[in-house]
Design a protein that fits this description.
216 residues; alpha/beta; five-stranded parallel beta sheet; three-stranded antiparallel beta sheet; binds adenosine monophosphate
Length: 216
Amino acid sequence: MRAIILLGAPGAGKGTAAERVCAGTPFRHFSTGDMLREAVKQGTPVGRVSETYMQRGELVPDQIMMEVVEARIAQDPPDAAYLFDGFPRTVRQAELLEAVLVRRQGCLEHVLFLDAPREVLLQRLGGRRICRACGANFHMVNMPPREAGRCDACGGALYQRPDDQESTVLSRLDVFSRKTEALIAHYETLGLLRRIDAGGNAERLVADVMRVLAAA
Ligand code: AMP
């Protein structure tokens, strides 16, 4: 098993970077947020428990997250390569991921921290819209669709994630400062952390991520 982790606050661009970086490589984009949203949509037991936490902008408990992550990894061959987006989010999750890597004789190759100022994160999350049909991302100001409320790619209806509404965004950013920032120190101590300026546009971010991965 091979692993790369993208760390960053909500709105830092982890999803966009992960999708583009994985294209054409053996790395699988592993987004725990997408997995949980799918579980909520399907009404599975994990989805029903997670929904309340997600609506409040809080973290789903570590034990549930590890069940979700391990169940997905167990479906893949032992040499699968993952680009983790939104996982781990606590030091405990990082330790449990390290245990999975040891068991699978895997290797954590890189940890990239996408760093963007708070005003940029708030502006991005407030304007974010997503296609209900294909999941494509738009932004009301930075990347508006050609036709208001419709996806350029498939014509599907665009919606705002319930947790992108302002009150929830503020608690998600607060949770990031309280819980996820400790991971930065954790990976810095392990000598794995690379910091990337994520305050600019998506093209620049993707190019910077690719450059760091290629050079490392
Ligand atoms: P995201 O799409 O990564 O912003 O995740 C959306 C929401 O799903 C988060 O606000 C959390 O409630 C939950 N979530 C996603 N990944 C994790 C994780 N690794 N640990 C705990 N909760 C998570």
